[in-house]
Amino acid sequence: MARALHKPVPGGVAVIALGNAAVPPQAYFGADRAMVVKDSDGQWVAVVGIDLKTPAGTQHLRVQGPDGPAKLAFQVGTKNYESQHIKLKNQRHVDPDPKQLQRFEREYKAQIAAYSRFREEGPTTVVLDKPVEGRLSSRFGLRRFFNGEERNPHSGLDFAVPAGTPIKAPSDGIVTIVADYFFNGKTIFIDHGQGLVTMYCHLSEFNVQEGQQVSRGQVIGKVGATGRATGPHLHWNVSLNNARVDPAIFIHAFEP
C-alpha cells in the first residue's frame, strides 16, 4: 500500500525498499528521520517526503540497519507548478507591521517544532481520508502572489466549502497544536506518527484540545475564514519528515 505513494518529485514522496530484516532499520533524509513501515509484501520501506526546494537529480537516503550504515540513491524528477494571484483587502496580511511580524515569528517556531516531531509509533495507515468533501480551489505547490508580491508557494490543498462544514481527522493521531495564528487563523495540527503531520487552517471553531487522541473520521473543527483568507475554505497540508508534500498523493488525487 505504501508504494502507491511513490511520486518522487519536489513536493512529492519517494518510497524506497529497505529489505526484510527482523527489525526495522532507521532512515534519514538530510537531517530528518524518515518514516519506515512494513509494506503489504512484508518488506520494510522508507516513505520519504521531498521538499519543494529539493533539486531534481540523485538524492541519498541514509540507512542504519542490522548490517551497519548504508547510503541508498534515489532519483527526484521534475514538476512544474503554476502561479496564482490573490487580492487581499488587508495589506497587513501581505506586509505585517513589526509587532505582527514578531507574532508571526513566534508562531512559526511553534509550527516548525510540531512539524519536526518524530514519534516512534507508526501511523495506522499511510492512505488518508479527505478531511472534507468539496471542490479543490487551490492545489499544492502554486507560486503565490498576494497583491502582486510573491510569497512562499502554496503548501497544501484548499477545499472551497461553506463555513461551518465539519472537518474530520483523516487518520488516527494526537493533536499537538490548537491555536489562533496571524496568517493561518484558527489552526489544528495532528501528529499521526513517524513524522507524518497534518495541519488544518482558517477554522471557525475547534472541537479538540491539545494532547487529545483523535480517531479517523472524528470531527476536529469547522471550516471558517479566519486569518489570511478571502472566504470560507479549508487549507489542509501534509508534512512528512519535516517536508511539506502534496496532500493529493495521500488521497489518490495527485496530478503529474
TrEMBL record:
Identify the Pfam families for this entry. Peptidase_M23, Peptidase_M23_N
Peptidase family M23 N-terminal domain residues are: 6-79
> Where does the M23ase beta-sheet core domain start and stop, copy by copy?
153-247
Q: Which residues form the signal peptide?
A: none
- Annotated GO MF terms: metalloendopeptidase activity
Q: What is this protein called?
A: Peptidase
Q: Which organism is it from?
A: Pollutimonas thiosulfatoxidans
Upper taxonomic classification of the species? Bacteria, Pseudomonadati, Pseudomonadota, Betaproteobacteria, Burkholderiales
